[in-house]
UniProtKB/TrEMBL annotation:
This is HK97 family phage prohead protease. GO terms for molecular function: peptidase activity. It comes from the Bacteria. Residues 9-168 form the Prohead serine protease domain. The lineage of its organism: Bacteria, Bacillati, Bacillota, Bacilli, Bacillales.
Amino acid sequence: MKELRIAELRAADPAGESSLVLSGRPIVFGHSTTINAPFGQYIEVIQRGALDDADLSDVRLMYNHDMNKIPLARTPKTMHLTLDPAGLELRAELPDTEDGRSVHTAVVRGDLSGMSFAFKVPKGGSHYDAKTNIRTISKIEKVYECSIVAFPAYPQTSVEARSAIENTWEKLKAPERQEAKIKINQILKRSV
């Protein structure tokens, strides 16, 4: 199932003919983040190497995941994705259209600074530990799109991710769930 995540975006110095260039790092390895789900929050980490065999051949750049609009860029022609030890780097040349100019201007001004991405984790590509409340993603099968978003928050994950975690969570008896929540809160307080 497709999942969404948020990361940082910035305007880049123009290179070549296009002056509407954006760059960012939509996927960062080894950093934990809090994901909101219907049953509560959990911590997620994407491991280094999770994108090693991922399909990055047909990724689109959108604004706010709006599939009703024309993409702002697309791999491999107007958007380039580069893997490095830190994660996935993006460089996109936006079209000289009203949407392209508006998005670019908003990024330059700092009004837009977040990116979200949609991806698919294959079966066995992640592990959820209910006791620590941590989901570790070790393999991403495909990145579908990256989006420039107005609010850099984690608005949703896919039904598959929620379902997999909810099934594990529901297997715990109510007292075990409460204990797990208490332990998670204690761990989170220590890390602050």
